[in-house]
Write a structure and sequence with these properties.
With 460 residues, this protein is α/β, with parallel strands linked by helices. It is 41% helix and 19% strand. Strand 16, helix 13 and strand 17 form a beta-alpha-beta unit. Helix 2 runs antiparallel to helix 5 and helix 8 packs across helix 9. The structure holds NADP nicotinamide-adenine-dinucleotide phosphate.
């Protein structure tokens, strides 16, 4: 894919960027490796201070950066502003809490015959982040903030359609006062990730993106015996039981499916509704989905902007056409509007069966599949039959149902009576083909650290 900013609302290429030459890439890796030697020796207080300063710089730049996000990938300006605010929060979180996460953890010395034993957390060096376009600042930030706090050096290969967001990340950390090469952006295509990951100067990698990209990076990392964290796809279940407030559940269901123009890994994508309330749910949910305003993402009145890429929209259309061709019913949407740009309307489908591709895969656009079920057990059985296991969502006032859901849903995250979202304070990640490892919180920071065991004997 060419490295360029293309406005998804018009299809116009606004700016193109040259890829790094082999010499430039080599120089950047050399600079990253040199920076890692020095940077690991900086104090945690110093790093926390730089992160705090980065939050201030980002707050100052918020207006301009939000517009760049919207221009590059089509989410509404409102959503872009929220994304930037979340990044500021993430930076402040690691600035405040990072030093505590990095404290040595003392163990029971006597039981191991020592005077003292503890685990000390140390940086591992240069970490490569391969990131997607859908939350172009937040995805990169939730890698960068804990990595820099940990004393690691970051190199970012961002998605090819968000180069200005990618370059802003590098600029932000420089302006905040971090050493110039502590965080660098590499403008390279996906096929050059292998070379970077195999390079001895690179210690580990994290990838957020699709299953094929994850498989490729995990294979290479496996061969090189390098640590890797994978945040891949999701087709999150959103289960609604009779005890819940349907007005609120449908309101959140709409947000769950359409946030980020329906292109979030943790969008609720499959809705399982108990048969006793299915008719009312469908009526309210369909009406609310149909009422959303699709249009110019820069306009305050718009709820849903265009999809980010032309091929992304073609994929969504193909999933819907496949399902409809095999007997699914369209309650609203289902057809691209006749206008320039890569728009797709909020769509509600029923009658989804295992013969349809969307039953087993991920639809990355505002398309909801609604299933009617006779029990929570039935909902969980279908939900767990999917290869992904990222987030999950239950709406119920019944404590026994909540307990069953938390125990049996196959996902990295279980949210009850509220929308699934990422917070810097709590871990984020999946199971099964949604990947492995965790981001955010203390767990995310320690993924790329050496938990070094120290044992000190009684001595003389
Ligand atoms: P993608 O094609 O996998 O792209 C993601 C990143 O990987 C981009 O930087 C891309 O570079 C690079 N890439 C692509 N193929 C690669 C390969 N074979 N080797 C190394 N790098 C490669 O993903 P996408 O379709 O743009 O993004 C949507 C997917 O990301 C969805 O499945 C979504 O659920 C998932 N996602 C997951 C999370 C999570 O936290 N679990 C969050 C957001 C999104 P180019 O742009 O240059 O191709």
């Amino acid at each position: 894919m060419a490295i360029a900013t293309t406005d998804p609302a018009t299809g116009e290429v606004l700016r193109s960027f040259d890829e790094l030459t082999p010499e430039q890439l080599d120089e950047k890796l050399a600079r990253a490796a040199a920076a890692a030697v020095e940077y690991r020796l900086t104090s945690v207080e110093q790093r926390a201070g730089w992160l705090g300063r980065a939050a201030d710089v980002l707050e100052k730049d918020a207006g301009a950066v939000s517009r760049v996000i919207t221009t590059e990938m089509g989410k509404t300006l409102k959503a872009a502003q929220e994304e930037v605010a979340k990044c500021v929060r993430g930076l402040r979180f690691y600035s405040a809490e990072g030093p505590g996460f990095l404290r040595d953890q003392h163990g029971d010395a006597e039981s191991v015959g020592a005077k003292q034993t503890f685990v000390t957390y140390q940086p591992i060096g240069v970490v490569l982040a391969v990131m997607p376009w859908n939350l172009p600042l937040w995805q990169a930030m939730r890698f960068a903030a804990p990595a820099l706090m940990a004393g690691n050096v970051g190199i970012l290969k961002h998605a090819s359609n968000v180069p200005q967001c990618a370059l802003y990340m590098e600029q932000l950390f420089r302006e905040a006062g971090f050493p110039a090469d502590a965080f660098q952006t590499l403008l390279i295509s996906a096929r050059r990730v292998e070379q970077v990951l195999r390079d001895d100067r690179v210690a580990a990698a994290t990838l957020t993106g699709s299953e094929p990209a994850g498989r490729s990076v995990a294979t290479i990392a496996g061969q090189e015996i390098k640590k890797v964290v994978l945040e891949l796809g999701g087709s999150d279940p959103f289960i609604v039981m009779p005890s819940t407030d349907l007005e609120r559940a449908t309101e959140v269901a709409v947000r769950a499916r359409t946030l980020n123009n329906g292109q979030s890994c943790i969008n609720g994508k499959r809705f399982f509704v108990h048969q006793d309330i299915a008719e009312q749910f469908l009526e309210k949910f369909t009406a609310k989905m149909a009422a959303l305003v699709v249009g110019d993402p820069m306009d305050d009145a718009t709820d849903i902007g265009p999809l980010a890429t032309e091929s992304g929209r073609a994929d969504v259309e193909a999933y819907v056409d496949d399902a409809v061709g095999k007997g699914a019913t369209v309650l609203t949407g289902g057809k691209r509007p006749d206008r320039p740009g890569w728009f797709y309307p909020p769509t509600v489908l029923t009658g989804i069966t295992p013969q349809m591709k969307m039953f087993h895969e991920e639809v990355f656009g505002p398309v909801a599949q609604v299933f009617t079920v006779s029990s929570l057990e039935e909902a969980l059985k279908i939900a767990n039959g999917h290869p992904y296991g990222l987030g999950s969502n239950l709406w119920s006032e019944d404590p026994a149902e909540r307990e069953l859901f938390v125990r049996d849903v196959q996902s990295g995250m279980a949210f009850i009576n509220g929308n699934t979202t990422s917070y810097p304070e709590i871990p984020f990640g999946g199971v099964k083909r949604s990947g492995y490892g965790r981001e955010l919180s203390d767990l995310g920071m320690r993924e790329f650290m050496n938990a070094k065991t120290v044992w000190i004997g009684q001595g003389a």
